[in-house]
Structures are given as structure tokens and as C-alpha cells.
Amino acid sequence: MNGNAVVVGGGIGGLAAAIGLRLAGWEVTVLERAAALGDAGAGISLHANGIRALDALGVGAAVRGAARPQYTGGTRTPDGKWLARMDGAALERALGTPIVGIPRAALHRLLRAALPAGCLVTGAEATSLVRTGPGRAGVATGDGTREADLVVAADGVNSALRAHLFPGHPGPAYSGATVLRAVTDGELPLDSDFELTWGRGAEFGHIVFADGRAEWHAVLNSPPGVRHPDPLAVLRHRFRDWHAPVPALLAATRPDAVLHHDIHELVTPLPSFASGRVVLLGDAAHAMTPNLGQGACQALEDAVTLAAALAAGPTVDAALLRYDAERRPRSQAVARAARRAGRMGQGLSHPLAVPLRNAALRAAPSRAALRAVLRHADWRPPGPVRPGGGERVR
Predict the structure, then answer these.
(1) Which of 1, 6, 51, 152 is deepest in the core (most CB within 10 A)?
(2) DSSP string of 218-258?
(3) Tell me: the pLDDT tens digits for 271-297?
């Protein structure tokens, strides 16, 4: 079974979906609204489920080659005391791969390199869905309508296509937190691959890349829309008394490198990820808070599951029903878990609640932290993404 598809959105999920669909025998066009790809972004951690999805798409080896394994680190308090240690070697033994860190721009480039020239069309914004004939779907763009056997809506947390499919859905909600992040301007001598520090109403974390640079992020409880003329200066003051290497990471950052985004999520779960010949994927389907580091991994799972369902057939409609049945319960459960993790992390600000949480974490056995990661990361593709036959879409 094969056909032609339009993927709306050239982010991680959209590019991965395009790779998977092509492996399944489909012709694919990716529409990206940005006129130029600036390779912006900070860093990303990929758990075993994300790596396994990339392996299924044929790009796992390339990503591993550009990434740095996260073997050492854990969670601390602002004074530097450990709450929990991360055992990357134990994760590798359990899952076959450690968590890895990679610049988001590098991951984008590797995904784009797996697609043929001309597959990705920039400066093409899909604003709405268009009614077409049976077994078809269409999207409206600035230069007309594009029709296909399948439309994949991977247009992000503020998805216009999701709003068109489910006009009664409330859409994304502000999580109560905002995130600032950046990559250091050069290599830093750091003692661990990954660290997370929880204070009252604030979180600071970093991951180290293969080239020695580090990505850091600061999550702050904040009203939405608050912006600062010099956000780096605000952070240097806010975290001035936190343990090393927090001040050093901020000192090694250029002011113009700081990205600032309010965190929105789909608190109200969608009733379906598919409607007719339109399917939702990634943040458009299940935008979640970043507290478990699973947002991109879930989008990669979506892409592989969709391709595998279409490769198995027997019809597109049956494949989309199977995709919805497999992806919606899992991704929405991960989103709920991420929300709970945020409430127990930087979301805590009460002076009595924070020390109680810290004491509970210190008392927990190390295997508890391992089980928490395994609960979400131990996923395998549901089937091959290459088709068993060449039946044409009906």
C-alpha cells in the first residue's frame, strides 16, 4: 500500500514522519512555514525510545555519532547536595543505549539529510484544511491547495490544523512556567554529562555535547508573557548563589544566544489523533511539558508507528485507526506523567513542601529512579516501516 502524503511542519516530528512514510513507499512533500531554516535551537536529550525510533528510520547510527552519551549526573539542590544520582551505565544495560545529548540543530540536519532534495518546501504555510473527494485530504497554502491521500499535521503546539479538526477543543494551556535556554559559546570543563537542580519555583539543568559545549535551561514559575530586556542578566542574578557550574554556564553564554519560550501543553486530551485522511503527530497531537524529556521522543514514536501502520495496511483508514489506538493512550499518559513531574519539580515553591520532597527523593532507592525512566523509555517499534507489498491506495 502506498500513496502520496503532505506533511505540515518541518520540525523533528514532521521530518521523521516524512522519512518513515518514504520508507513505507509513499511520495511525500513537507511544508515548512519558515522561509529559511536557521538551524536555531538549543539541545535535546534522547531516551532509548527515541533512539529506537531513529534506528527504525535508518538514522540512528548517524545520530549516535553526533551525540554524547549521558552516563554521569543526577538531581541536586541549589547548594549542590545530591537528591538522586543518574546511573547511565545501568540504563544502557537495561535498554541497550544510554540517554544521549545532541544539539537540536544537528538532529534537524541529520533528519533533513535523510530526505531527497525538493521534499522539504520552505516558506509554505498551511493555514487550514480543505474539503476534497473521498479518500483524499487537502490543505490551503498561500499559493493554492495541495491535495494528497494523507495529510500529516505536525504543525506544533499551536497547530492550525488541529484547531480546524477539533474547533470545540480549548487548545493549548499555559503550564505556569517559562523556560530560557542557550548553548555555551565554547567548551567547558564539566564534571558530569547531565545535571538537574531543583529550587523553590525554579529549575536549572544542563547537558554536555560531544564537542564539549553545553546546553543549559532555566525553568521558572512565572505569569505568561513576561520578557526581559536582558534575560541573561536576570538569570545571572537569579542563580548567582546556586552551586557550580550554574554560574559558570551562564557566564559562558552570549546574551544574544538565549531563547525564551512560555511552556504550553494540551491539558485537555484530544478525542482522536485521526479524522478522515488527516492525522495528528507530535506537539500538534499531545504537546507536553519538558519535565520528562519525552516530547521529541514521543514525536519520533508517532512517526515510526504511523509508518509501520501504513506499511502493514491493508487500507489507509485501517492504518490510521491502528495508529490512533496505539499512540493516543501512550502519549497522553506520558503527558500526564510529565505534568506531575513538573509539579513535583520546579513547580513546588512552598517552604514546607520543598524539603519534604527532597527528603523523599534522598530516601528512595536508586532502582526507583531507574524504574521511573524505564517506565517511559522502554518502547519498541510496533512493526517494520517498510511495506510488505505495493498495493496502491484506494
Answers:
(1) 152
(2) EEEE--TT---SSHHHHHHHHTTTSPTTHHHHHHTS-GGG-
(3) 999 999 999 999 999 999 999 999 999
CB atoms near residue 155 (< 10 Å):
30
Strands of the sheet with 120-122, listed across from one edge = 120-122, 27-32, 4-8, 150-153, 278-280, 274-275
From 369, 295, 341, 316, select the one nearest 84 (Cα to Cα): 369
Q: Is 393 helix (H, G, I), strand (E, B) or coil?
A: coil
Hey, what's the cell of 70? 549521558
Measuring CA to CA, how many Å separate 186 from each of 191, 195, 258?
A: 16, 18, 15
Other C-beta atoms closer than 10 Å to the C-beta of 167 total 8
Residue 371: DSSP 8-state: H
| Angle between helix 12-23 and 48-56 (nearest 10) | 40
Q: How far apart are the C-alpha atoms of 70 and 96, rounded to whole Å? A: 13
Mean pLDDT of the chain: 94
pTM: 0.96
Where along the chain do its domains lie?
Answer: 4-70+100-171+266-345
